[in-house]
Amino acid sequence: MKPSDLVRRAVAAVPAYRLVEEAAAVKLNQNESPWDVPPDVKEEIFARLRARPWNRYAQEAPGRVAAALAELNDWPVEGIVLGGGSNLLLEAATFAAVREGQAVCAPRPGFALYGLLAGLAGARAVTIPFGPGFAYDADAWCAAVASVRPALTFLCTPNNPTGSFMNRDGVRAVADACPGILVIDEAYREFAGEDRRDVLGAYDRVILSRTFSKAFSAAGVRLGYLLADPGLAAEIRKLVPPFNISILTATAAEVMLERRDLFSGRVGVLCAERERVQAALGGMAGVATFPSRANFFLVETPYDAEALAAEMKARGILVRTGSDEELRHMVRVNVGTREENDRFLAALGELMGGRP
Question: DSSP states of 69-94 as a string?
């Protein structure tokens, strides 16, 4: 018997999540912020770290972050769950809510992690397609969850990779229809200009998942958090390893929350760039793009997506392809700096036989 034969069948059956590390002058493939945390903010983080003991498990610093998030969201601190990245928290919510053989609903196309987590839990993944132009169809969602009766539903708004956004009435309708827990993944909420905090208090089975990776330029810091009913949060917290937030991560988050106006300004710049780039794409023959409320958007061309991505890489630009059939002629492009975006437009214009 091989050691791998001792692994649970549900785990062995799930393909590993892999992303090949690639280097390029313009990196538009991972929905990251194009800007690092500013030097003065880093210096404040380092100054606080120098004054804090590193030989003790971090308790006070994560507690301060949770308290700050509770105040910002007008939500009980007992309903805040911190984790080393929102992926870890989505995993905890899945294993808290889903038993083997039950169903998990998620959008298609959607974040690959949802199906991966369903598989690891031994659950059945049921995907719900979008309407024309990748618009969310709340009625279709309500019908699907009423029919499937999932133990857990992932609703990503804005959705990765489409940028689709479901409005408040649609989300409330889905929450009404869901028999189990509804996780609203708001990783890109800052770029939408609104969130679904208003839904949280009305439904004790709704969880909001958020991250510092995107709007706060902190993908390398690894911090996510959930907002949930305090009783539900207490159960999910049991599945989150103790002391999983380091003093380094907590201190960085503490300072970034204090300087959040700086990061909000950056979000505004990226949203303006998103509109500018999509407008330029709209004037490019043979190219289509779709409405997005995130820091990325889909671009459709007549070319195979993998071939287009390879051509862009040859020009020093990384974009992302997807495995869904609907995306076979599409690449996902995150918004970069103005210079990076102009390089992308010029490269695509060259490939399409013209200039933007």
Answer: HHHHHT--GGGEEEESSHHHHHHHHH
